[in-house]
Amino acid sequence: MRKRLVIPALVAITVLALTGCVNNATTTGAATTAAAIGVDSAAVALLPADIAKSGVLSIGIDATYPPNEFKDANGNPIGWDVEIANGVAAKLGLKPEYQVAQFANIIPSVVGNKVNIGVSSFTDTVEREAQVDFVNYYEAGIMWASAAGKTVDPNNACGLKVAVQATTYEDTDEVPAKSAACVAAGKAPIEKTQFDTQDAATNAVALGQVDALSADSPVTMAAIANTNGKLQAAGVSFDVAPYGIAVSKTGGLGKAIQAALQSMIDDGSYMAILDNWGVGDGAIKTITINAAAKG
């Protein structure tokens, strides 16, 4: 069982009942550790020549998934995933430059060489590996949440309305599979309700518009912690799977990213970032590529 998420110095996200919105302009007093992370010459040597020459690591991100990646009061991406990406750039001697995009557009942007990498809590799946490679750096489960006082069982959710962020693993795989099992058993399907952002999905539960939400465990725990008692956990996390940084299948950048991340594990900066955000339970010791295909 994963421990409860604690986010240091994070200003609470509040549900604004009158507007129906969750304020995602949160701030954190935890400074990025990238400035203290040194260049790793072995990782730099693996960089494709064009990226090394540019001095920039361009990163596609959907900054709507707190505490992994979200926006500060000035609209800049922050979160533990962002700090990991900043650390990778530092190891490679590159400047990180973020391109905020919708989640569904990030992998196509990597494939089309519009960004070098995608960092947005991507669950590594065999289907996604058909398009890009994943440098695996974390393990997260799925966790449901319901309105406080409302009992919801993720394993017996037939006929319920469940909120998901569009194109996430919960949207494309997990909830549809549960719904199909309901239909196969002669029961009502799950009514999956898609939202463009996780904030909107969280807000729908808090306002009683849906029965529950499904999201990655760090995100669900953050939503519970930051909605002033409006949400509660619906069971425990399950279906643990790897997160991966999306990279092109050509060009060789994946090996450089893998080496940079492994260097962060070895020098302790990786674990320091995760512990600072209270998500250390998902830490791994060895960085791999395309773990889903090997599972």
Can you characterise this structure?
The chain is an alpha/beta fold and 295 residues long. The protein folds into 2 domains: 39-140 and 242-294, D-Maltodextrin-Binding Protein, domain 2 (3-Layer(aba) Sandwich), CATH 3.40.190.10; 141-239, Periplasmic binding protein-like II (D-Maltodextrin-Binding Protein, domain 2). Helices cover 33% and strands 24% of the residues. The protein has 11 helices and 13 strands. Strands 3, 6, 7, 8, 9, 10, 11, 12 and 13 form a 9-stranded mixed β-sheet that branches. A two-stranded antiparallel sheet has the order 1-2. A two-stranded antiparallel sheet has the order 4-5. The radius of gyration is 19 Å and the shape is globular. Residues 56-281 form the Solute-binding protein family 3/N-terminal domain. Keywords: Signal.
Please specify the SSE layout and strand pairing:
Blueprint lengths: L14 E2 L4 E2 L18 H4 L4 H6 L1 E6 L8 E2 L5 E2 L1 H12 L3 E6 L2 H9 L5 E2 L7 H4 L3 E15 L13 E5 L3 H16 L6 E5 L2 H9 L5 E5 H9 L5 E17 L5 H15 L1 H8 L11 E2 L1 H4 L1
Parallel strand pairs: 3-6, 3-7, 9-10, 9-11
Antiparallel strand pairs: 1-2, 4-5, 7-12, 8-11, 8-12, 8-13
InterPro entries: Solute-binding_3/MltF_N
Protein name: Polar amino acid transport system substrate-binding protein
Keywords: Signal
